Amino acid sequence: MADLSPKQMIFVTEYLKSSNMTQAAIAAGYSEKTAYSQGSRLLKNVGIQQYLNKTEQNLNRDLRELFTADAVEAYGVLKEIMNDPGVPPKDRLVAARDLLDRAGYKPTDKIVADVNTEGTLTVVFDAGME
Which sign does the torsion angle of CA 21, 27, 32, 35 carry? Predict the structure, then answer.
């Protein structure tokens, strides 16, 4: 990965904050008149692309680590709500559904079958059931 100039580093830092190449170019010291074209040019620079990709990968990894800890805590909270007999049943059910949903278990769709006296079967399928 090529070394970036101080001006390019400022551009990259500002671009990571805002995802706005024009504003990042202005913050890096380019004129407002040429900021759009300079930002576009800088984003095509291989060294800048490599640096942005590596930085974004590191940020995503760090965020995943942070959210993993929060997810464990949220799981505990939902489990406490679900198991607390003092919590209204509706709220306990919502917590249980949320836990199952986050674990990848979707609720089954509502299917109602009605068999009348003539032997005709009527099936109603409701995919919008919650």
Answer: negative
CB-based burial label for 47 (10 Å; 0-12, 13-18, 19+): middle
Residues 99 and 130 in one domain: yes
Residues 100 and 56 in one domain: no
CB atoms within 10 A of CB 42: 23
What are 126's two structure tokens? 């409701």
Report if pTM > 0.85: no
Residue 92, H or E segment: helix 89-102
Residue-wise pLDDT for 82-117, tens only, equals 899 999 989 998 998 888 888 878 766 666 666 666
Rounded distance between C-alpha atoms, residue 97 and residue 113, angstroms: 24
Give kind and range of the element (H or E) at residue 122.
strand 121-126
